[in-house]
Amino acid sequence: ANGLSIVANTPALTSDAEAHAGYSSAKFGVAGAIAVQVVSATTSATVDPAATLSLGSGNVNLSANAVTSFKTVADSSNSTNAKASGTGVGAGIAVEVIGNDVIASLPDGLTITYLKNSLGGVSVSANHKGTEIVTAKAGSAGGTSVTPVLAAAVSGAYVEATIGKGNEIISSGDVSVTTKNFVTRTMNADAAAAGDSVGVGGAFSVSVFRDSSNARVDRSIKAQNLKVNATGVQGRQGVRDVLGRSVAGVVTLHPASNYLDSLPIKMFEYMSAGIPVIASDFDLWRAIVQGSQ
Questions:
Q1: Fewer CB in a 10 Å sphere around the end CB: N or C, the chain?
Q2: Within 10 A of 74 (CB to CB), how many other CB atoms are there?
Q3: What count of Cα atoms within 13 Å lies in the side-chain half-sphere of residue 215?
C-alpha cells in the first residue's frame, strides 16, 4: 500500500437511565426511586502488533474520536405534594459507573517496511469529549417524615495515542501524536422532608473520578517536525504527577508589552516541582527563575 488510514468514530454515544416514583395521601406513604447505570465503551483505531506494514510514500493516519453523554436520575421528590397522615418515606438513589477508552496506536512490535525511501506525514490522534449527569431527588411529608438521598458516581475516561516500540519511522513530512480528553460532570443530591412531629432529610453525594490523556512515542523518528501533545483537564494531583514525569517545563511567549510583566502560573508550578525551567528571556522572568536556584 502507498499509505494507511484507520479511523474509528463514536459520534454520539448516549445513555439515559431514569427512575421516578411518588405516593398519594394515605396513612403511610412510601416512595422509592433507584437508578443504576453501568457503561463500558471503547473506541479504538490500531493495527495488530503481529502485522507487517509495507508502505510507500503516502500518509499514515490513525484517528479515534468519541463524543459521549450519560445521565442517571432517581426522582421520588413528591411533586404532587401528597402528605401521609402517619409516616412518609421518600428515597432516591442514583448510581453511575462509567468507563470510556479512546485509543489510537501503532503498537509495540509492529514492523514497518518501506517501499520507497520514507513515508509521508504520520498522524496518530485520540480525542474524547463527554458529559455526565447524576441526580438523586426525594421528598416526603407526614406526621413523621424521612428522606434519604444518595448520588454516587465512579467514572474514568482513558484517552491514549501512541507510537510503540519497533523499528525506526522515517517520514518526509511531520509526525504528530496528540490526545484531547475533556469531561464535564454534574452531580446533584437533593432531599426534602416535612414532618409535623419529626422530619429527617439526608442528602449524600459520593464521586470517584480518574481520567487520563496520554500521548507517547517509544521508537526512533526521523521527520521534518515531531509534535507530541496531550491535553486534558487535570486536578492538582494530576498536575503533580505530570510534572513528576517531566524533564523540563517550557514557558515561552513573544516579547509583547502585555507579556513582559506577566506571571504565568505554570512557571511557578515548574519551580515548585523542582524541574528545570525554559523561559523567554524577559527581565522579570529571568530574575524570578534565577532567584529560585
A1: C
A2: 29
A3: 21
The residue assigned the cell 485520540 is 126
> pLDDT tens digits, residue range 64-101?
999 999 999 999 876 666 666 667 777 889 999 999 99
The string of pLDDT tens digits covering residues 22-81 is: 766 667 767 788 999 999 999 999 999 999 999 999 999 999 999 999 999 999 876 666
2-to-119, 183, 226 alpha-carbon distances in Å: 8, 37, 21
Whether 118 and 174 have beta carbons less than 8 Å apart is answered as: no
Whole-number Å distance between alpha carbons of 79 and 63: 47
DSSP per-residue string spanning 3-70: -EEEEEEEEEEEEEEEEE----SSSEEEEEEEEEEEEEEEEEEE--TT-EEEE-SS-EEEEEEEEEEE
Cα–Cα distance, 51 to 105 (Å, whole number): 13
- Least Cα distance to 29 among 108, 88, 98 occurs for 88
φ, ψ of residue 92 to 5 degrees: the values are -135, 125
Cβ proximity of 104 and 126 under 8 Å: yes
Q: If 0-12 CB within 10 Å is exposed, 13-18 middle and 19+ buried, where does residue 136 land?
A: buried
Grid cell for residue 211:
481520567
